[in-house]
Amino acid sequence: MASNINAVIGQSGGPTAVINQSLVGVIEGLYKQSGVGKILGSKHGVRGILNSDFIELNDLDSGLLEQVAQTPSSALGSTRDKPDEEYCKKLFESFRKHSVGYFYYIGGNDSADTARIISEMAISSGYPLRVYHVPKTIDNDLRTTDHCPGYGSAARFVALGLMGDDLDNRSLKGVKIDVIMGRDAGWLTAASVLARQQEDDGPHLIYVPEVDFSEDKFLGDIDRIYTKLGRCVIAASEGIRYKVGDKHSLVTEKAVQGGEVDAHGNKQLSGTGALGDYLSDLVKNKLGPIIAERTTAKLRVRADTFGYLQRSFPTIVSQSDAHEARICGRMAVEYSMTAPNGLASGSVAIKRISEAPYKVDFFPTALTNVARQTKPLDAAWVKNGCDIGNEFILYAKGLVGPLPIPGKLF
Amino acid sequence: MASNINAVIGQSGGPTAVINQSLVGVIEGLYKQSGVGKILGSKHGVRGILNSDFIELNDLDSGLLEQVAQTPSSALGSTRDKPDEEYCKKLFESFRKHSVGYFYYIGGNDSADTARIISEMAISSGYPLRVYHVPKTIDNDLRTTDHCPGYGSAARFVALGLMGDDLDNRSLKGVKIDVIMGRDAGWLTAASVLARQQEDDGPHLIYVPEVDFSEDKFLGDIDRIYTKLGRCVIAASEGIRYKVGDKHSLVTEKAVQGGEVDAHGNKQLSGTGALGDYLSDLVKNKLGPIIAERTTAKLRVRADTFGYLQRSFPTIVSQSDAHEARICGRMAVEYSMTAPNGLASGSVAIKRISEAPYKVDFFPTALTNVARQTKPLDAAWVKNGCDIGNEFILYAKGLVGPLPIPGKLF
Questions:
Q1: Which residues lie closer than 8 Å to B328 by C-beta, 6 or more apart?
Q2: DSSP characters for B111-141?
Q3: A–B interface: beta-carbon pairs under 8 A
Q4: Does residue B160 share a domain with residue B304?
Q5: Are A110 and A17 in the same domain?
Q6: Is the previous residue joined to B357 through a cis bond, with omega within 30 degrees of 0?
Q7: Alpha-carbon distance B361 to B376, whole Å?
């Protein structure tokens, strides 16, 4: 006889290349549980719970599941909604109505906070609900876990993109600026350093939000590299910021007019080329005349913004990332059933066991250890304000996987 | 005894993911010729000839050659120089000085024109020189040949990029605009249609330079799709243009201030996000209020410019494209030795033999059949001014190779 305790799975926030691996991991985990009745996929995160907009995920063909696992972006749809008290009451009405006893929410720190709020409301209202957050973010900025599923694949895209772009710049020279995602943390931008295999390879300069941005230093750095190599490739985070007094202001705010803010109070930094164009114009106007006078050649400056390609490009996936994302989904189910260390609700985290061979383990942690605050890149890993050190390379290479080695003739 | 007739190879114009396959094809071809002495790689195209800046390519290890072949961008470096009479005189001085009897130039229509000028100057000055152009361009706009090496791989990047971006847009909705390379021809933008495997898949709208752009039609098209699907993914060429009287003006010129012009008179359209941001603002400002009134939700609009990633991303390569690029290099050497149909100088072209199985053959053609003018996309393949028909899909799918099939749950 089928159980009448049902489970809900949702996906939230920005998609990744492996978020569906976690979804399929949760589904596989639930298939092994006899105490679970309906497995309900909530369409577009909490919004689907609010509107009772579910898909039944019981008895899916394993071939389709594997195909979904290998497909980037959120197969259940996503949302940027952040439930408040009123919103949460409606979620509980839906949970009660559908006899939901297990809720798995795959997302970043905002989603962990949503899970925390729902979990706390369930406890205070005496409704028996186990809530497990499955970590997901290309930004890699969740606390407690060593790294986040989704990061390795996006970092792989960034490293490959910079590698190709450096080869491109090697052939036609000039200054090239690549703007990389990452609102508050430089993890993804830092991954560009993995493209550098030989001393004169780009990226030659790397700017992350963890270091205050100075236009004068930026121009001086470029001038130094360009004078030495006759070219310069730069990776800059979309979140780079000036320090003005004791406050920070985003460089992109200078570049964008009337930018958007989402429900979480986050400024829209992606889906626009404004920052790249602003930095490009800065180099053209300030450094162009100086270099033109010195070399008698016009300075070629270009900027690209990698944009949404970073998080959803099919076939560019780190194998370890895909594998871990899947396991995180399975562990969320296991932890929700066994409540290890008393954690009937929580988040799945990753612990690094060794660097070489790269090996990890998984553990449960409280939702309060993941929700809301983010984890910046270690400031000691940033060198001279414009480069990333070997500590990061050691940390990141297992997450990104082996990269091709370019063949060069000179 | 080694011959004292030497060969020069150069690469020109914008790099591609497979231009080094052609380079290695030429090198391999020359290794089989006993009548050739030194094989000189000219650094940065004609500029290397001008400055006697060569690398000897004889006796390279086959492992290194294969590694170079699989590396994107131009291993010899590239140039945008277009030789005039004075420049050509200097090239001949260099050719005479270095006893060069064979010149292979890998590039697009501008490079074919450079090859033509040099070839004609050699004939008129009585200098025995055989010049073969090896076709290369992601734009696919060369005349005579069925398609161009470099196109299939860039088209694969665009198709995969749009596929991932459509999945992304499916999860978070809104209007997404992707700006694709292609100054004068819509071939690369058209390839975005290959991402569409089911009826409601994006891209839902495709805009190419071959059709006059109208902002009113653009907004009306988006409104129609958005009303039907609640989302809309758009692929737009960087070269879309308005018709004003009997003249055309680029949309990007309205968006870019003080844009650059290169030595060939080409306007800089790449390396800036201005067009995407302009179109994005247009949709936000004109369509946003109308849709907000109808749906009570704020219209989410984002734009990405795929930029240089399209032409130099490592590992995103069409297998048929890589293979054909290699063969084109080898055939250039063979034709230069045998002068078929009296073509002691010329260009290598591709003829399509069959669609299924996809099969091609190669033939030599006069440089005048390739130089200067470009080949637009067949206007009959564009449907309703905003879509690409099945004729193109049939043409392109063999060039791009098999694509993944996304797994979907709804």
A1: B22, B25, B134, B135, B149, B348, B350, B362
A2: HHHHHHHHHHHHHHTT---EEEEEE--TT--
A3: 212
A4: yes
A5: yes
A6: yes
A7: 22
Q: What is the pLDDT of residue A297?
A: 80
A15 chain-B contacts, CB cut-off 8 A: 167-168, 171-172
pTM: 0.96
Chain-centre distance of CA A220, in angstroms?
31
On whether both A270 and A129 belong to a single domain, the answer is: no
- Looking at chain B, which residue has its C-alpha nearest residue A171? B77
* Residues B249 and B396 grouped into a single domain: yes
Query: In total, how many domains does chain B have?
Result: 2
How far CA A233 is from CA of B180, B252, B314, in Å, comes to 22, 25, 17
Are B282 and B396 contained in the same domain? yes
Q: What is the CATH number of the domain that holds B62?
A: 3.40.50.450
Bridge partners of residue A175, in order along the sequence = A232, A301
Contact A315, B170 (CB under 8 A): no
Q: What is the pLDDT of residue B1?
A: 47
Tell me which DSSP letter residue A377 carries. Answer: P
Residue stretches of chain A with pLDDT short of 70: 1-2, 257-271
**Chain B closest-CA separation from residue A314 CA (Å):** 6
**Per-residue b or e along A299-317, where b marks 16 or more CB atoms closer than 10 Å to that residue's CB:** bbbbbbbbbbbbbbbbebb
Domain that holds residue A292: 151-180+182-306+378-400
Residues sharing a CB contact under 8 Å with residue B395, sequence separation 6 or more, in sequence order: B147, B381
The catalytic residue positions of B are 139
Residue closest to B185 by CA, chosen among B247, B250, B140, B246? B140
Q: Is residue A143 part of a domain?
A: no
Please report the ipTM that was assigned to this predicted complex: 0.95
Q: Which of A367, A398, A393, A369 is nearest to A382 (CA)?
A: A393
β-strand B346-354 against A241-244: which pairing, if any? Answer: unpaired
The CA distance from B82 to A146, in Å, is 53
Separation between Cα atoms, residue A351 and residue A365, nearest integer Å: 11
pLDDT band at B270 (very low <50, low <70, confident <90, very high): low
Place of tokens 């018709």: B243
Pair A306, A177: CB distance under 8 Å: no
Do A305 and B301 count as a contact with CB atoms less than 8 A apart? no
User: What is the C-alpha to C-alpha distance for residues B288 and A272, in angstroms, rounded to an integer?
Assistant: 17
> What DSSP character marks residue A191?
G
Closest C-alpha among B285, B207, B284 to residue B250: B207
